[in-house]
Amino acid sequence: MEKINSFNIRAYGLCINNGKVLSLFEMYAGEKLIKFPGGGLEFGESLIDCLHREFREELNLEIEVLGHFYTQENFLASKFRKNEQLLTVYYLTRIKNLPDLKIKEKSIERVEWISLSEPSPFNLPIDRLVFEKLQKEFLK
What's this model's pTM, rounded to 2 decimal places? Predict the structure, then answer.
């Protein structure tokens, strides 16, 4: 394993609507991913500012952040950059302008609302864990 010498802090928005969560189907580093909207924190940016920027840049959407949902608790090396340690933070969000949804990021193949009553389709372990936590919270 390469020496970890940097952090990659990521913020993701969880948009729940009628028992479904907004998900992105995306190509990243040559791999097809199913992931939540969001991305990497830029220098000088807060987690909340990051979420707003990512939703605007990727999907042409404005969101309201409803609250914190989950922060990754365990060490996780990046799957794509072996020298990075990931820290992921997830927030519940509400989309303010859903009719304006437009995929602006070329790596995103499609957007889909995935039912929380189905098994997790997510590739990345932390997203699978968050999906299971959403199921426990919203399928009571």
Answer: 0.92
